[in-house]
Specification:
Blueprint lengths: L10 E5 H11 L4 E4 L6 H14 L2 E4 L3 H13 L4 E6 H5 L2 H10 L5 E7 L12 H8 L3 E2 L4 H18 L3 E6 H4 L2 E5 L30 H9 L2 H10 L3 E4 L7 E6 H14 L6 E5 L7 H9 L3 E5 L5 H13 L4 E3 L15 H12 L8 H13 L12 H12 L7 E4 L38 E2 L5 H10 L7 E6 H17 L4 E7 L2 E2 L5 E2 L17 H8 L3 E5 L4 H12 L5 E7 L3 H10 L6 E4 L17 E8 L5 E6 L21 E5 L4
Parallel strand pairs: 2-3, 2-4, 4-5, 5-7, 6-7, 10-11, 10-12, 12-13, 14-15, 14-16, 16-17, 17-21, 20-21
Antiparallel strand pairs: 1-8, 9-11, 18-19, 22-25, 23-24
Helix pairs in contact: 1-2, 1-7, 3-5, 11-14, 12-13, 16-20, 17-18
Bound molecules: iron/sulfur cluster (2 copies).
């Protein structure tokens, strides 16, 4: 389906993120800027795919705050702008998020943030609605794909009416699921960019300018009554008053409202409970809530994330002097305070609240679940066969002094898998004293610290400056995270002479989120060719004295370069390991109708298992087969997975020359 098709009334199947993009198209969006982040990426990708034909400017920015500022700049001169990011990415925006509302915007500015309750793809499960409360901005929370589209369109109107950015909170289950959407018409008018330097308020666009930030904050505060009034009027906030004499209510929002509705139906009480579904969890509609509270003896709040609605309901109940009991996460311990909600959790909570029995789980579903458990093999994530990171981490493992307690600080990207294989070891008090050596055997066991994108080089500096000398200090980052937030930290390392090895794994793409281009790729979001912004040149310009680039498929050269860098004194040393992402290389070969090479293990294999520690998922081990030294156990290569990168064929990995290239080609 073409996301810009002008066919109002047509029913189509859209991914949640496509629905947000369609809503923006219907609203006549003029600019979209974002940094990739699961589960939000497809919003921008969808718009990038139609950017040229629809005249929308779309860009992947170098990080979230730059993207946010690009969108804000467009909205300040009156354009309609969409900014999208994931939950954690929104933290990068905080400084500007807290300041922009003091001046507001002229064109509609809509912020879509895809949260990740349960932290499926993220390092935390923060709730973006809280940021809306903190920044005093209205927040929408759609419950399905239709609302995702409709609310995005509506958010542009509200933003222009209030002259404030508007936030839409999505989540994994909405962004990454598909649903029916009835299309609306497309707004064809475009806001003409214009800039009146003293538009309405003198020095409006200069927060420090007269009458100063406090007066501008007051200007924003004065918008709150309109926000509240809107919340009471919008049909996205709905109250269904039930019959019967239970006198109980439920307030819910977003995905949680779907689980709630299902729970009420399964319990057969959908006509006996007053149900309020909030499409706008901040600010909640006070009059509607008062109506509900006035007809209940208790109210259960069911929401995903923090108890934002529950707190607001408590406040309204207190103001009313209403004796109604409000329960949820804060009180009553009815809803789990962490993790993603699901239909079963909500069913249990609703049943307990209403004093009903949870209906028996139907047996076939339970049976299927245990059958699946048997079939699915439990394992951690792995790199792709032939991933250049395999070579980088193999060489790093060899280059680091084995008798030292080296620290490897990593950030967010495919290289974070270098920390996925560590088995959890319980820590007792003694374990926190002194450095302990624990040698990684595979590349999946190497990372020691992992928090957020851009933290790696800074953490290394703190470790160095506080006097950590029990081993080497290494920062591992990717090309995209180099441009994202590591550049200022590298300048800081040079400025403050922090010794560390900075390993930049450049594979030309932002891979973990599905291969978006970045300044290392040579193209933009809309496929326009641009010059590559060279990482080594940037580092040299920053004053890094040791800068080298190597091919991570050359294990010997990579190890040697790393050893040299690890002995560099007086400041950071940078090694760029550069090789195209294996998946992208496969795509190149497919486009050229060429085959990838293929390797096989030959009968010289001694079963030493050394190649298994490379971590390539194409390599396996047959315990029952007799090997070259007459013992049991021999390595094998899965021909369906092998891409012929040749890493396992190198003497650094297999000293028995036990590999044959059985299909020619260049990888
Ligand atoms: S292929 Fe080589 S490295 Fe792998 S188990 Fe056989 S002999 Fe050892
Ligand atoms: S050549 Fe070896 S390391 Fe490369 S993909 Fe094939 S099995 Fe994996």
């Amino acid at each position: 389906m073409n996301i810009v098709c002008d066919d109002p009334g047509k029913r189509v199947l859209l991914l949640g993120n496509e629905a947000f993009a369609r809503g923006a198209v219907e609203a006549g969006v003029q600019l979209c800027s974002a940094y990739p982040g699961t589960p939000s990426t497809e919003i921008t990708e969808t718009l990038a795919g139609v950017a040229k034909e629809s005249g929308i400017y779309v860009e992947w920015s170098t990080n979230e705050v730059v993207a946010f500022e690009v969108a804000a700049g467009a909205a300040i001169v009156g354009g309609r702008a969409l900014f999208a990011c994931k939950n954690a990415g929104f933290n990068v925006v905080m400084d500007m998020l807290m300041t922009l509302p003091y001046t507001g915007v002229r064109g509609g500015m809509v912020i879509v943030v895809a949260d990740d309750p349960g932290a499926w793809y993220s390092s935390n499960e923060q709730d973006t609605r809280i940021m809306g409360f903190y920044a005093e901005l209205p927040v929408f929370e759609p419950r399905d794909q239709q609302e995702a589209k409709d609310m995005t369109r509506e958010a542009f109107e509200l933003s222009e009416a209030l002259e404030l950015p508007v936030i839409i909170r999505s989540c994994t289950r909405l962004s990454h699921a598909s649903g029916d959407v009835v299309l609306g018409g497309i707004r064809r008018e475009r806001n003409e960019p214009a800039f009146d330097k003293h538009w309405k308020v003198p020095y409006r666009w200069n927060v420090y300018g007269p009458p100063g930030p406090v007066a501008k904050h007051q200007w924003q505060k004065n918008k709150m009554p309109s926000m509240v009034e809107y919340s009471d009027e919008t049909p996205f906030n709905r109250l269904d008053v039930a019959g019967g004499n239970r006198n109980v209510g439920i307030i819910t929002s977003g995905m949680a409202s779907n689980y709630t509705q299902e729970a009420l139906e399964r319990l057969g009480v959908e006509n006996e409970v007053h149900l309020m579904v909030l499409g706008m969890p901040y600010p909640i509609p006070p009059q509607k809530v008062k109506t509900l509270l006035g007809s209940c003896r208790s109210v259960l709040c069911i929401e995903e994330g923090e108890p934002l609605i529950e707190r607001q309901v408590h406040q309204i109940a207190n103001e009313m002097g209403c004796p109604v009991k409000v329960v949820g996460k804060l009180e009553g311990n009815m809803i789990p305070p962490v993790d993603e909600l699901n239909p079963d959790t909500v069913l249990g909570a609703v049943a307990e609240y209403l004093g009903e029995q949870v209906p028996r789980t139907d047996e076939p579903a339970e049976g299927l679940r245990s059958e699946l458990k048997e079939l699915v093999c439990a394992r951690s994530s792995s790199w792709c066969p032939g991933c250049p990171h395999l070579g980088s981490f193999w060489a790093l493992k060899k280059a680091l002094p084995a008798d030292k307690v080296n620290i490897i600080n990593t950030g967010i990207g495919c290289y974070e898998m270098s920390g996925y294989g560590i088995a959890a070891v319980p820590i007792d008090a003694q374990d926190t004293v002194g450095s302990k050596r624990w040698r990684a055997s595979s590349p999946y066991e190497m990372t020691d610290t992992l928090y957020i994108m851009g933290s790696e080089t800074g953490l290394s500096q703190g470790q160095y400056h506080v006097g950590y000398r029990d081993g080497k200090i290494v920062s591992v980052l990717g090309d995209s995270s180099f441009y994202h937030t590591n550049m200022p930290a590298i300048v800081n390392a040079v400025y403050n002479k922090a010794e560390q090895l900075i390993l930049v794994l450049d594979n030309f793409w932002t891979c973990m989120t599905g291969h978006q281009p970045n300044p290392s790729t040579g193209i933009t979001a809309t496929n326009e060719e641009v010059p590559v912004i060279n990482i080594e040149e940037i580092c040299r310009a920053f004053g890094v004295k040791f800068v080298k680039s190597v091919d991570p498929y050359d294990l010997d050269a990579t190890e040697e370069a790393m050893k040299e860098a690890l002995s560099h004194k007086g400041g950071p040393a940078v090694i760029v390991t550069r090789r195209l992402c294996a998946l992208q290389r496969l795509r190149e070969l497919r486009r050229a109708r060429e085959k990838a090479p293929l390797f096989e293990v030959n009968d010289k294999c001694t079963g030493c298992r050394q190649c298994l520690y490379l971590g390539c998922p194409a390599i396996g081990f047959d315990k029952d087969k007799t090997n070259a030294v007459g013992a049991k156990g021999v390595a094998f290569i899965d021909p369906l997975q092998c891409v012929g990168c040749g890493l396992c064929d190198q003497k650094e990995v297999c000293r028995f020359d036990a590999h044959d290239k059985v299909q020619e080609g260049t990888f």
